[in-house]
Design goal:
Blueprint: E1 5-13, E2 25-27, H1 30-33, E3 39-46, H2 57-71, E4 89-91, E5 97-104, H3 108-112, H4 119-122, E6 141-147, E7 153-160, H5 166-182, H6 210-213, E8 221-228, H7 230-244, H8 256-271, E9 278-285, E10 303-310, H9 318-332, H10 338-352, H11 357-362, E11 364-369, E12 387-389, E13 399-404, E14 411-418, H12 419-426, H13 429-433
Parallel strand pairs: 5-6, 9-11, 11-13
Antiparallel strand pairs: 1-5, 2-4, 3-7, 3-12, 6-7, 8-14, 9-10, 13-14
């Protein structure tokens, strides 16, 4: 599908008030330094609904720019610059966030559901800032507002993984939307979402997680969305318990996300012929594991990768996989501070051995969950998004992201695989039996 893409405007949105002098340098934590500088993307699609909102396109863009400028006074590092890929600090120089406005000659629903490998999707992000698609830029954040011929718009946000994880991205976008709706960072509805910064001393550069950021060319990668109704996920839980016999019970298999994660991984491994030893990787938010607990609005990379290895095909049975995840979660409960996070990361890396990072990435299948993150309720003043999208073509590995459906009851799975493997996964009878008809 070919569409015409025209840039209307491009500018730097600066904080509405300058960064205080004592905050001009933001030291990245050792956890942040272990991640390379690449961009996590998210895109929010808003249909044209004149009955709910009388704002014109120009009005909406003005609201977005003003509220972004206001939000940057709280998220001051986001308007700064990372001058080198390995710099241990951010220069909070108020240079601002690149804000692009673009026009597309297509209907919004044609792009929001288009296969995510389509080159047109890249046009929706400022400077194609997603994953490792673009060369080094010192910017930490980029925004592009896209106008469609149907009157709908999309807001695409790209945030550097150096500054934070998916939880940080969700908190920022939610804060920005509340400021847009209420007009002030001091409003009582906005204050609970103010960012929390943990002071980090200046440290030497830590070893980056090369396994997740090895450069790869994946021209044959495709991403597809699958929807799993809550009722069918309950059936899946019961199936797992029955398969596990005395080793599992409905009491310890409590998470729909866990059983769905195992089903998706099992199916992805089966789709890769012939079988090869693989890794299921599950990033887990650990802010609430710390003692004392960290607020969910804490800025930074506060997550741990849980690792499940499968060396034989028998290791991919649902009951075996769920049992291993339960064990990993029990070990996760012991992590209470940054030092223990580093120990967990080092243990994770040692389990992967001394293999070439690209080889490990080829055999890894990360499943990230952003369920519970309020991305489906990001309301800038004209309603919730009809669709929340992700872009994975330039990601360094296959994998999956789970999120709530717009209604909140069911789960969407955005799965990325090589084309031939996706064809097999998409026709897997067991997987399809738990999908939406």
């Amino acid at each position: 599908m070919n569409t015409t893409h025209t840039i209307i405007s491009r500018e730097l949105v600066k904080p509405s008030s300058p960064c205080p002098s004592h905050l001009k340098t933001y030291n990245l934590s050792e956890l942040d330094q272990r991640l390379k500088h690449f961009y996590m993307p998210i895109i929010l699609y808003y249909p044209n609904n004149n009955q709910m909102c009388m704002l014109t396109h120009d009005d909406k863009v003005r609201v977005l720019k003003k509220s972004l400028s206001q939000s940057l006074t709280r998220y001051h590092p986001f308007a700064g610059r990372l001058h080198t890929p390995t710099s241990p600090y951010i220069d909070c120089n108020d240079e601002g966030v690149v804000f692009v406005e673009a026009k597309h000659d297509s209907q919004m629903n044609m792009l929001q559901h288009v296969s995510q490998e389509d080159d047109n999707v890249a046009q929706l992000y400022v400077d194609c800032m997603f994953w490792q698609h673009s060369p080094f830029r010192p910017n930490l954040l980029g925004v592009q507002v896209n106008h469609f011929v149907c009157g709908g718009i999309s807001v695409a946000v790209s945030m550097s993984h150096k500054i934070g994880d998916a939880c940080t991205l969700g908190s920022f976008v939610s804060h920005w939307a509340l400021v847009a709706r209420y007009g002030s960072t001091n409003h009582k509805e906005v204050l609970p979402l103010d960012p929390h910064f943990v002071q980090s001393p200046t440290t030497a550069n830590s070893t980056p997680l090369e396994v997740w950021t090895s450069p790869q060319s994946r021209p044959n990668a495709v991403t597809r969305k699958f929807v799993f109704p809550n009722s069918k996920l309950n059936d899946l839980k019961n199936k797992v318990v029955t398969e596990g016999g005395s080793t599992l019970s409905i009491n310890n298999v409590t998470s729909r996300v866990d059983v769905l994660t195992c089903l998706l991984y099992k199916t992805a491994v089966a789709a890769t012929i012939p079988f090869k030893p693989s890794f299921l990787v599950i990033p887990a938010n650990i802010r609430n594991k710390f003692v004392p607990k960290l607020p969910q609005t804490t800025v930074g990379n506060y997550f741990i990768n849980m690792l499940v290895t499968t060396t034989h095909e028998s290791d991919t049975s649902l009951s075996v996989l769920v049992s291993k995840i339960i064990k990993q979660k029990m070990e996760l409960e012991r992590v209470q501070n940054v030092q223990m996070v580093h120990q967990s990361i080092d243990s994770f890396m040692s389990c992967l051995g001394n293999e070439d990072p690209e080889n490990v990435a080829n055999r890894s299948f990360p499943v990230s969950s952003i369920r519970g993150f309020p991305v489906n309720k990001v309301d800038f003043g004209w309603g919730n998004p009809a669709v929340v999208g992700m872009t994975f073509r330039a990601a360094p590995h296959n994998g999956c992201v789970l999120m709530d459906t717009p209604g909140g009851d069911d789960i969407e799975a955005w799965v990325t695989l090589e084309t031939q493997h996706m064809e097999r996964l998409s026709n897997d009878k067991e997987l399809l039996s738990f999908c939406q008809n």
